[in-house]
Amino acid sequence: MFDLLALITILLLFFVLRWQASQGKSFTVRVLTATFLGIGAGLVFAGHTAYVGAIGTIYAHLLKAIVVPVLFFSIISTVSSLGNLKTLTTIGAKTIGVLSLHNVLASVTTIVVALTLGVGRNAHIDLPSNVEVKEVPTLTQAVINFFPQNIIEDAANNRVIPIIVFSLFVGIAILTYQNKAEIKAFTDFIDAGHQVIFKVAALITRFTPYAVLALLTDKVGGLNLASLGSLLLALATLYLVTLFHSSVTTGAIIGLLGRLNPWIYLKRFFSVWMIAFSTQSSVGSVPANVSAQKEMGVPEHIASFTSSIGTTFGMPGCAAAWPVLLAIFTINALGLDFGLLDYLYMVVVALLVSAGTVGVPGTATITATAMFTAIGLPVEMIIVLTPISAIADMARTATNVTASGSTGLLVARFEKVLNLDQYYDNDGQEGKAYANS
């Protein structure tokens, strides 16, 4: 009786979220509304949310269903867009190398900070009885598992790493194919598939506020104040890590690898950081990103290339800090036993799944789902942490864009085409002397 009443109440509350959407309320506002409504409904209907919980489970299943096609089409599209193998092995390789460094350093920083602060340790969230936690493989077995032996079976079982490796090979094959006219039908299919799956992901993401409301109603009855506080700790940790990466880590990379004054980059790129922070879109920030790089002396072809690749690869905010933070929250909340090799494996997975990240608001959830699927954690836990995702997305996106901007700067520096006079402008001669030393 009360279970049915809870379901009816949630369905009525769905109309509140729908009304907000019709009034033009932002995605963030609707998710926050769903958060408060879910907490309230969970307290009222504690112990009677079996029907409501099914709604959130369906959403989690939909997310898992699109992981493979999103990775497949996004990676092939990204690699094949490099134009030719020469571009891939020169500018492309350097771009991917710097973005990979950003991703790895962000993952390591997140692991250190999150474990030190004990994120999720007091959440006391029980794992749903119908969800099993897979064992994390040894490092040797993990390397072997990177390579597919049956791509259809891997796709059917949501084994994301072999899908990524296979997609990379397909992308390289397209690049090296001599007669592009012969494979035009296939490349058109990839481009069309990328657009379609992009639309599917966007459609599923639109239901996030409703899933948050249903999932929180189901989960909050078992949460205590310490658990709610742990969500805020996770959010604070995310902001700490991303701000550290955007300033200290990025500055160190520019200073040590590029032998440039990092303060100039951070100061002149701040407006782009703010655009990314407010729009929550890496793709939407590309024009401002390219413009800022050009003003700092980066040639346009490098600025455009690195900005574009940076929306789909590396992404230290969405593809490293966020999924790693969620994973550690889940590990601590469920009391799982992860060792050093497991965390190293997590860093590798974060780098690989970043290749399939699409630079639009909300796709960090897809990346996190791929991470959880790869390391054997329950996807349902991602939804539990969704209430803070909308606020976290501002910091994640700004970090992604800052990384791609610094990548363009460094690639131009490595290629010896960075205009140092334009970079330093009126900031003095000391930096130029250091750069030329």
Summarize the structure.
With 437 residues, the chain is an all-alpha fold. It has one domain: Proton glutamate symport protein, CATH 1.10.3860.
What do these coordinates show?
- With 437 residues, the chain is mainly alpha-helical.
- The chain has one domain (2-435): Orthogonal Bundle (Proton glutamate symport protein).
- Helix content is 74%, strand content 0%.
- It has 21 helices and no strands.
- The chain has helices spanning 2-22, 27-44, 50-80, 85-117, 139-145, 151-156, 160-176, 184-206, 208-219, 225-257, 262-268, 270-279, 286-295, 300-309, 316-334, 340-353, 364-375, 380-384, 389-414, 420-424, 430-435.
- Helix 16 (340-353) crosses helix 17 (364-375).
- It is globular.
- The N and C termini lie far apart (77 Å).
- The chain crosses the membrane at residues 34-55, 62-82, 160-177, 197-216, 228-257, 269-288, 308-331, 343-360, 366-386.
- This is L-cystine uptake protein TcyP.
- One of its GO terms (cellular component) is plasma membrane.
- It is a multi-pass membrane protein.
